[in-house]
């Protein structure tokens, strides 16, 4: 399969500069850029007439199995039913221009293989399996009066409980055995969990280090759910590569991020959406009341991190019917950042986080041929990415999949 885009404005995300020219894709990769390119017979040619072309977007924090905001209910759903919902959610993500996503717990090798084999339409899926949680932690969805916990491997769900160093090692090894691209740990309380506090720390340092050791041994890394500076700093000290959310960080956290060369993945849009629509899509009342604790702090944390030179990736963390707001994260971040910096978080920054620099998030020769043809310049108007209707074409692996 071969594709040639003529007369494009090709964005170099690293420099923030456009160059006029053509771009040719073959066998799923970008093989040539420049002026006046020619292509073999049978190549599909699209004259984009001066339209901006940017790399395909990467969302580094999604839950493609989260058809409801009541995460605790997913574990009792039939895996086939969850997969059906996931295929719809993933197709809609691709239609919004997200050609790769990193799932932050819930997705498994079955969904990743189905997408790779063309059985379902959606972004390239980097999965972690089930997130690791201590008893009473962010992925323990039992109420106070429930004692039984079913972690049977056939069940859907976003997490598994592992207490103690040996159990954490075994759980991490098990997810890695199944092909996890990263390990997710719950290092603080959260909104969706019923019995913890957002300001709690979770897992001992030895347990956190055990997860990091196992991921490192497999040439993988650990992502940690954490909100407060105390929880974030502990996770970074343990060797975690990416912090998810981080709404309540302080200057000491910024210093720790820079020192450890770690990434922050803010997810501002999920709190905006949960506040507006959470209960309508299944978020329990007890969880909805927690949203205010992190909603206002998110932008402050992002601005602090950006000013301090922290590596950033784009993430959304949306649930249920709120997935449709995925692109609104661009507009929220532009309240404190420039459009090019937000676009970098969704391309080169996220690619570096997942260990695919030069393969994703760029229009360089040799990269996966994932790109978007837009009807306006997102560096002048972020609405081109934040609002529906501005994508002329979505190209994934060299094939036009939308538009």
Describe this structure in words.
By secondary structure, the protein is of the alpha/beta class. It has two domains: 2-55 and 363-402, Roll (Urease, subunit C, domain 1), CATH 2.30.40; 57-326, Metal-dependent hydrolases (TIM Barrel, Alpha-Beta Barrel), CATH 3.20.20. Helix content is 31%, strand content 23%. It is built from 13 helices and 18 strands. It has helices spanning 79-95, 109-116, 165-177, 205-217, 229-238, 251-260, 268-277, 285-288, 292-295, 297-307, 328-333, 339-353, 383-386; strands spanning 2-12, 17-26, 29-34, 44-47, 52-55, 57-62, 98-103, 124-126, 131-133, 159-161, 183-186, 222-228, 242-248, 263-265, 311-312, 371-374, 391-396, 399-402. Strands 1, 2, 3, 4, 5, 16, 17 and 18 form an eight-stranded mixed beta sheet that branches. Strands 11-12-13-14-15 form a five-stranded parallel beta sheet. It has a three-stranded parallel beta sheet with strand order 6-7-8. Helix 3 (165-177) packs parallel to helix 4 (205-217) and helix 5 runs parallel beside helix 6 (251-260). The chain is globular and about 65 Å long. The two termini are 17 Å apart. The mean pLDDT is 93.
Distance between the termini: 17 Å
At the first level of CATH, what is the class of the largest domain? Alpha Beta
State the helix count.
13
The low-confidence runs, each spanning 5 or more residues with pLDDT under 50, are none
CATH fold-level assignment of the largest domain: TIM Barrel
The beta-strand count equals 18
The overall average pLDDT, rounded, is 93
Largest sheet: 8 strands, mixed
Overall 3D form: globular
Radius of gyration over C-alpha positions, nearest whole angstrom: 21 Å
| Secondary-structure class | alpha/beta
Share of helix among residues? 25-40%
Oligomer: single chain
Please give the CATH architecture of the largest domain: Alpha-Beta Barrel
- The H-level CATH homologous superfamily of the largest domain, spelled out, is Metal-dependent hydrolases
Number of domains: 2
Q: Give the strand content.
A: 15-25%
Keywords: Hydrolase
Protein name: Amidohydrolase family protein
GO molecular function, one term: hydrolase activity, acting on carbon-nitrogen (but not peptide) bonds
Organism: Nonomuraea zeae
